[in-house]
Amino acid sequence: MAFNYQTFRTRALTAIVFVVVMMGGLLWNQWSFLVLFSIIHMGCWLEYKTLIAKIDPRYTDISSAHLGGAILAGTGFICWMTDETFVIGNTQLNILGGWVLLISLAGLLLIKLIKWKMPDWKIIGYTVGGLLYISLSWGLLLDLYGKISSLVLSGGWLLPMLIIATIWINDTMAYIVGSFIGKTPFSSISPKKTWEGTIGGGILAILAVTLTAVYWLEVDTVQMIVITVTATVMGTLGDLFESKLKRMAGVKDSGNFMPGHGGFLDRFDSLLLATPYVWLALFLIR
């Protein structure tokens, strides 16, 4: 894969804007973190619906209530996973989120019952798949921000930031290394990826984030190795999974909100798959 300066320049400029917005949402406070990923959650869902509709045209016909109910249920789950620092008046947000989740799921079921038709389990499966692929991941990221983060590290933004930094460095270094020395195709699903770029980017990401966290932030070495290795491996697989969806849908990008990077799913595909596995790994070792 030859190095393309114009492509790299476009990607770099839009990435700078993206990083500024992301850093603001990540670091300002817990509410900016929640709002940021609630917006990302909605963007991912809209693109997911479009992709699935291209794969199976029947999904085009789902009602606005169906799609809105799924997004609302996912948002409820995200809020349900927040910790005690998220309070509205005298009410914990996780309590409100739990009710929103239950009511949304009940509403989706009621819509199907009112139609008095045999349920199309494949269509239902696509929606359940979206909840697992998108909503579950962002909900667990909120949990990493709060409960698990406070137990494993120092709480707050640090743990999500370490995961995101690992994925960003891995993606960038894999592109650069692959551009200069990549020769061996990594997968037919994503023909531009090479083994050289994938391995080189992964090693550089793991070393950079682990050494920074251990020697500068004084994070436990074993925990950091678990975080960075899991994020790197599953992030790469997450990118391949989304590429497979796009290939099945016959599109190049999931959307176009970021020039040079595509849509929400294109930008967050690695994080979507890495987050639940990092959550599970930390849950098991904490």
Automatic annotation (TrEMBL):
GO terms for molecular function: phosphatidate cytidylyltransferase activity. It comes from the Bacteria. It catalyses: a 1,2-diacyl-sn-glycero-3-phosphate + CTP + H(+) = a CDP-1,2-diacyl-sn-glycerol + diphosphate. One of its GO terms (cellular component) is plasma membrane. It is a multi-pass membrane protein. The keyword Ubl conjugation does not apply. The chain crosses the membrane at residues 12-28, 64-81, 93-111, 123-145, 157-182, 194-216, 222-241, 268-285. GO terms for biological process: CDP-diacylglycerol biosynthetic process. It is found in: Cell membrane. Coiled coil: none annotated. Its main location: membrane. Its EC number is 2.7.7.41. Pathway: Phospholipid metabolism; CDP-diacylglycerol biosynthesis; CDP-diacylglycerol from sn-glycerol 3-phosphate: step 3/3; Lipid metabolism. Keywords: Cell membrane, Lipid biosynthesis, Lipid metabolism, Membrane, Nucleotidyltransferase, Phospholipid biosynthesis, Phospholipid metabolism, Transferase, Transmembrane, Transmembrane helix. The keyword Mitochondrion does not apply. Belongs to the CDS family. This is Phosphatidate cytidylyltransferase.
